[in-house]
Amino acid sequence: xxxxxxxxxxxxxxxxxxxxxxxxxxxxxxxxxxxxxxxxxxxxxxxxxxxxxxxxxxxxxxxxxxxxxxxxxxxxxxxxxxxxxxxxxxxxxxxxxxxxxxxxxxxxxxxxxxxxxxxxxxxxxxxxxxxxxxxxxxxxxxxxxxxxxxxxxxxxxxxxxxxxxxxxxxxxxxxxxxxxxxxxxxxxxxxxxxxxxxxxxxxxxxxxxxxxxxxxxxxxxxxxxxxxxxxxxxxxxxxx
Length: 240
Description:
Blueprint: E1 6-8, H1 9-15, H2 21-29, E2 33-35, E3 38-39, E4 46-48, E5 53-55, E6 58-59, E7 67-72, E8 102-103, E9 112-118, H3 121-128, E10 136-142, H4 148-155, E11 158-159, E12 165-166, E13 170-175, E14 178-183, H5 190-197, E15 202-210, E16 223-225, H6 228-237
Parallel strand pairs: 9-15
Antiparallel strand pairs: 1-4, 2-3, 2-5, 5-6, 7-9, 7-16, 8-9, 10-14, 10-15, 11-12, 13-14
Helix pairs in contact: 1-2
């Protein structure tokens, strides 16, 4: 997805998490950076999206925002720092830690699956806003079978406790103890609270879809950049 920009070479390279501005200047002095096919020693000049910038022969495609898909494993928390547990950011390259990235919502430490990481605050806010009702699908393994009556209750919206309610949620049976549940809001511990309100317990939980995006191509703990069509799908999910 091409973007129109006018940015310094060192800012572009550092913003992409490739190296610091200081290291960028050193790389330029060593002839590692080319601009439109010619070695450049100046990293303070501004270039546009029509220029071809390369580092060590590899073209750098600059984007103001980063969109990352992570297949979150168990045992990791969705926080920038945690004194007790490892964070999901430890699964990314170390040079990404200073790029202002954050998770779009949070998954519990032992919940696995689709997690989107970005530095696009506006899109993240829209994806999490209850008014946009962005669909998220979870696969839950429950302690007890879920009855059709329970499925009907969830489909109409339900009380979670004395002070809170849940919007209608769609529960589909996979097998006796496995259910896919689609929700349209992002309340804290929502899936677990829904099943607790139905006098059940969630034993295992995985998010298998976020606004139509899945991570079936990723092993636990693996990540990749979102494709352009996936980024567009996220944007379309909040503009319908």
